[in-house]
Amino acid sequence: MLGASPLSSFSEGTDAAQTCDRLYDDLRDIVLMSYPWSFSVKKVQLARSVDAPTNEWLYAYPLPSDLIGSGPRALFPGAGTGTSPVATGWEVYGRDVLTSYSTVYIDYQFRPSEDVMPTYFVQLLKYWLAWHFAEPVTDQITKAQYFQVLAAGSPSENMRGGMMRVAMSADGGSKPAQAFINYPLVSARAT
Question: Looking at the structure, do residues 126 and 145 belong to the same domain, yes or no?
Answer without folding.
Answer: yes
